[in-house]
């Protein structure tokens, strides 16, 4: 359940593949967050499809509409949970592309906008590797910090992701499940105290 007085938290998986363990982990995280007083929204990057970002060619007047929509969505939040796959030891290109576009949005319909300023960010990853996406999260952490977000220290790394979630998307690994509980708790706490709104 959600409460009107609670923080607004967006859960964003960095994979568009149906059945992706990161999408499934994001759904489980959203389920746990929804049991609190927070207002929780789970979105899909497919709904905000964007072309590849080109810093040399991107001009504000030519920003894709979805970049503006996603930037507005982020600006409305107190907290953001990114659930990101690792690709070649780095953060997923799909997610990094979305962050690149939204980070450049400074104004929408004449209204100033700062999508990442004072945004509290939690990080999680599911991976086939024994490291559970740890290297990808390290890269993503640096990016979010550079954008001005408050990135939480606790994070979730779910290794052997094919076996780490059951058929109801519940985490079967006890340590990873406890880590998600801690991350949810901290995300709520810091979204209240550091977020853009006060509760």
Let me know the CATH homologous superfamily. Answer: Flavodoxin domain
Radius of gyration: 16 Å
Number of strands: 9
Strand content: 15-25%
* CATH architecture identity: 3-Layer(aba) Sandwich
**Helix share bin:** 25-40%
Order of helices and strands: EHEHEEEHEEEHEHH
**CATH fold name:** Rossmann fold
Instruction: Give the rounded overall mean pLDDT.
Output: 91
Structural class: alpha/beta
What does this structure look like?
- The chain has 199 residues and is α/β, with parallel strands linked by helices.
- The protein has a single domain (8-194), classed as Rossmann fold, CATH 3.40.50.
- The protein has six helices and nine strands; from the N terminus they run E-H-E-H-E-E-E-H-E-E-E-H-E-H-H.
- It has helices at 21-34, 65-75, 93-103, 134-146, 161-164, 174-194; strands spanning 8-13, 39-42, 79-83, 86-87, 90-91, 107-108, 111-112, 120-126, 150-158.
- The strands form three sheets. It has a five-stranded parallel beta sheet with strand order 2-1-3-8-9, with helices on both faces. A two-stranded antiparallel ribbon has the order 4-5. A two-stranded antiparallel ribbon has the order 6-7.
- Helix 4 (134-146) links the parallel strand 8 and strand 9 (150-158).
- The two termini are 17 Å apart.
Quick overview:
The chain is of the alpha/beta class. The chain has 6 helices and 9 strands.
Offer a few descriptive terms.
199 residues; alpha/beta; Rossmann fold; five-stranded parallel β-sheet; two-stranded antiparallel ribbon; globular
């Amino acid at each position: 359940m959600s409460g009107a007085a609670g923080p607004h938290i967006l859960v964003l998986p960095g994979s568009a593949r149906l059945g992706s363990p990161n999408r499934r982990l994001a759904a489980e995280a959203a389920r746990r967050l929804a049991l609190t007083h927070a207002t929780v929204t789970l979105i899909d990057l497919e709904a905000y499809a964007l072309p590849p970002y080109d810093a040399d060619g991107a001009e504000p007047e030519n920003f894709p509409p979805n970049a503006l929509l996603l930037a507005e969505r982020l600006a409305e939040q107190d907290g953001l949970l990114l659930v990101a796959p690792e690709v070649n030891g780095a953060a997923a290109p799909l997610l990094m592309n979305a962050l690149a576009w939204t980070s450049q949005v400074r104004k929408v319909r004449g209204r100033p906008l700062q999508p990442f300023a004072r945004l509290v960010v939690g990080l999680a990853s599911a991976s086939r590797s024994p490291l559970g996406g740890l290297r990808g999260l390290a890269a993503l952490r640096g990016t979010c910090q550079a954008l001005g977000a408050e990135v939480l220290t606790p994070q979730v790394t779910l290794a052997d992701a094919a076996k780490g979630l059951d058929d109801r998307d519940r985490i079967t690994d006890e340590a990873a499940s406890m880590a998600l509980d801690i991350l949810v708790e901290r995300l709520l706490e810091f979204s209240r105290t550091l977020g853009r709104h006060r509760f």
